[in-house]
Amino acid sequence: MRYRRLDVPGLDRLERSSVYYAATEFEARLCQQDPVTVVGGGNSAGQAACFLARRSPVVNLVIRHDDLGRDMSRYLADRVEQSPRIKIWRCSEVSELIGHEALEEVVLHDLRTDAKQRVATTAMFVLIGATPYTSWLDGQIALDAKGFILTGPVADGSEGACSRPAARASSPWATYAVGRSSASPPPSAKARSRSARCTGSWKPRVAGEQEQTRRALSVMEQRELKTKVMRFVGEIGIAPRARCTPWPSTW
How many Å apart are CA 209 and CA 87, to the nearest integer? Predict the structure, then answer.
C-alpha cells in the first residue's frame, strides 16, 4: 500500500519532520500540548482526530465537503462534532505548508469563498486513503478496477460456488491475500444461500473457522493477543461490543 500524499508547496521540505500518515501513541506524544491538523473525512481521520484530542488542545479537521457523515460512520461523526477540542473546517483544503525545519502553520483554502487562512499547527496527519501497490501482479492475480486483489469466489467469477476452500483465496489457487491489498465485497445473499447448501448453514461455517483459529493458538498466545486487543481498544476510546465474539474459556 502507498499512502496518498498532498500535492502542495512545502510538503517535500517538511514531510520528514512534521507530516504523518498514521496517528499512534508515538506521534501523539511528539505533538502533545500543541495544535495539530488532520486531513481527511473518513473513519481513519475521525478516529485520529478523537485520539489526538486527548493530548492536543486544538485538532483542526479539514474536509473538502460540508457533510461529516458522508464518508464517516455516524457514531464517529457525532463524537467528532461533540468534542470541544476538534475544530472542523468544512469545504476546505490544505493549500500550503509553512515552516523552515518544522511545520509552523498550514494555509487553508475555503472552496466556497476562495478565501485563504493561516492556521497554527505543529504537525499534519494526512489520512486520505491509500493505493494498492499491486501493479506488478497485473495479469498474474485477479485485480479489481482500483488494483485491489480479488479474493474468494469473485476472484474467478464463480461467486457462491463451493469449490473455493478459503474466503481469502485469490487466483491462482494456493495464493492468499493478507492485509489491506484485498478488496472482495461481502458475500451476497445468493452466495450465502449456496454456501448454506454446501456447509449446512452460513453461520456455523464462520463459527467453525473461528474455533479452528482459537484452537491453533496456545494459551499464552491467546492471553497476549487479548492484552494487545484490549490495549488498542482503550487507546482509540471505543468500548468493545459485548459478546461480539466469545473468548475461549482459558481467557
Answer: 44
pTM of the model: 0.63
pLDDT at 2 over 70: yes
**Around 206, how many Cα atoms within 13 Å sit in the side-chain half-sphere?**
6
100 shares its domain with 120 = yes
Is residue 16 domain-shared with residue 112, that is, in the same domain?
yes
**Which pLDDT value is given to residue 148?**
80
Confirm whether 206 is domain-assigned. no
Same domain, 39 and 121: yes
> How many other C-beta atoms are found inside a 10 Å radius of the C-beta of residue 43?
14
199 closest CA partner among 152, 154, 169, 163: 163
Q: Is the pLDDT of residue 43 over 50?
A: yes
Q: Are 94 and 70 in contact (CB under 8 A)?
A: no
